[in-house]
Automatic annotation (TrEMBL):
Entries under SUPFAM superfamilies matching the protein: YkvR-like
Residue ranges constituting the Galectin domain according to the UniProt record: 1-90
Name of protein: Galectin domain-containing protein
Gene3D superfamilies in the cross-refs: YkvR-like
One Pfam family recorded for the sequence: DUF3219
InterPro entries: DUF3219, Galectin_CRD, YkvR-like_sf
Tree of life domain: Bacteria
């Protein structure tokens, strides 16, 4: 599934839309390569995003609710890490 976070395309392996305290919560699981690591982490430092999921007709403003990664050294060429991010509507 294709998800855009601040216009950055992320190919997501798993997606779930739930409710949390009367707000939409978008859960995303995806893999990040050594080559993409820097761009993804810099993006997540922004914390406030516009998320678009065209296939689900979602286009909304969100912030990070929860975020964690696998314990993978992505500074090593060829490594791939698992990322999980939960975005809550603002």
């Amino acid at each position: 599934m294709q998800v855009y976070i601040n216009d950055m395309l992320i190919n997501v392996d798993q997606y779930e839309l739930t409710e949390h305290k009367d707000k939409q919560l978008i859960k995303l699981d995806f893999q990040v390569t050594h080559e993409d690591y820097h761009d993804i982490t810099v993006l997540f430092y922004e914390n406030d995003f516009r998320v678009k999921i065209p296939s689900e007709r979602i286009d909304q403003h969100v912030t990070i609710h929860r975020y964690y990664t696998s314990f993978t050294n992505l500074y090593v060429e060829g490594n791939v890490g698992d990322f999980h991010v939960e975005l809550i509507e603002t």
